[in-house]
User: Which sequence fits this backbone?
């Protein structure tokens, strides 16, 4: 999500088994994903959905009454 939104990453990953890691520069990733309309739409929808799950539903301030 961070690459699509051009923001700092907000998660870390720890592998449980040995692996080979390959890096893809953000410019290349974005050109591949966003250069193809169906994948750009799917990526945007997925990010928006994930971000919506963690967005506050109530404005900050006084707590709402139970």
Assistant:
């Amino acid at each position: 999500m961070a690459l699509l939104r051009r923001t700092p990453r907000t998660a870390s990953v720890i592998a449980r088994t040995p692996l080979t890691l390959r890096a893809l520069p953000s410019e290349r990733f974005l050109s591949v994903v966003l250069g193809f309309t169906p994948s750009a739409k799917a990526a945007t929808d997925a990010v928006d959905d994930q971000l919506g799950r963690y967005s506050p539903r109530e404005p900050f301030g006084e707590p709402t009454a139970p």
